[in-house]
Amino acid sequence: xxxxxxxxxxxxxxxxxxxxxxxxxxxxxxxxxxxxxxxxxxxxxxxxxxxxxxxxxxxxxxxxxxxxxxxxxxxxxxxxxxxxxxxxxxxxxxxxxxxxxxxxxxxxxxxxxxxxxxxxxxxxxxxxxxxxxxxxxxxxxxxxxxxxxxxxxxxxxxxxxxxxxxxxxxxxxxxxxxxxxxxxxxxxxxxxxxxxxxxxxxxxxxxxxxxxxxxxxxxxxxxxxxxxxxxxxxxxxxxxxxxxxxxxxxxxxxxxxxxxxxxxxxxxxxxxxxxxxxxxxxxxxxxxxxxxxxxxxxxxxxxxxxxxxxxxxxxxxxxxxxxxxxxxxxxxxxxxxxxxxxxxxxxxxxxxxxxxxxxxxxxxxxxxxxxxxxxxxxxxxxxxxxxxxxxxxxxxxxxxxxxxxxxxxx
Length: 410
Hints:
By secondary structure, this protein is an alpha+beta fold. The chain has two domains: 27-193, 2-Layer Sandwich (Beta-Lactamase), CATH 3.30.450.40; 268-410, Histidine kinase-like ATPase, C-terminal domain (Heat Shock Protein 90, 2-Layer Sandwich). It contains ten helices and eleven strands. The strands form two sheets. A six-stranded antiparallel β-sheet has the order 3-2-1-6-5-4. A five-stranded mixed β-sheet has the order 7-8-9-11-10, with helices on one face. A hairpin with a 4-residue loop joins β1 (69-76) and β2.
């Protein structure tokens, strides 16, 4: 009996049912994929730009799963639609057709409606395919995974391949495992955005309070003075009318100066690549040049690192303190001092001006000079503001920032 002939298998014969199958990387540790995807989801949650981070996430997923094309649709609860939020590798025609579609429509919509993974191994034979985009793109197979956070549907992640039967059971397990992390990361990113927007709204409210403190009172005074000015003119009391006119002109000039300085202050803030110390040093120099008040900056000890949000609040309080000196103190000199010690950051702003009776501003109806606003800012980080002054003795503002876990190193 002759020996059987062992013909070598031709590459194209190895997988006749999957003619376009790609060679898989042998021996790759599946846990490495999970590690990569954990990094991916962390990147989404830490990024304030959700659409860009989702694009990057899809690109990485395509490499890990060896898919060709990917998209993420997020749920619009108001319309119950799925809206394209990110995609990689698709044509403009696909983007146009899949920009928005109802939840439940076609295979992707089915995954959203049921909350379960939907796989099609051969789209050309799948009767569930009702939208034309996949056929037009000539996809071979697809997998769509719901994105959930605390059992709440946020959207769907869909990967496509030009090959049929491209997505294995391990692909499915991997995508299900990571979809929950991506869903949570999306929710965290949205929470970050809402928190940031809330911070902006709060800052706008504080600015409006400053405008009220600086501008509204002046306008109310002008309104009263113009009425008295009109009465003097009607009575032909020209000397008194001229006196009122000069007062009105002075208030207008002072108010104009207030607005100009407020605009400068509002536009000045600490940038991400800046520090509280460098920003204050620069601002003190500019403030001195602008107002003619000799303003000195001093530092004592090492300054601990602080989050940018806390630095900006401290910076605003120093701005407000110096603004009060400009408007009310009649000072020739001011000193801004920063000191880090005993798990605290201490900031003092002192002037050699005329001071004032502190008891006169403790009535809530008479609080001015930005004192209440400064205290509200300090309350954001469990800090405090203390003011020491008396007529003829100048004014000392002390800002105390505790370095706890929420705002700095412990």
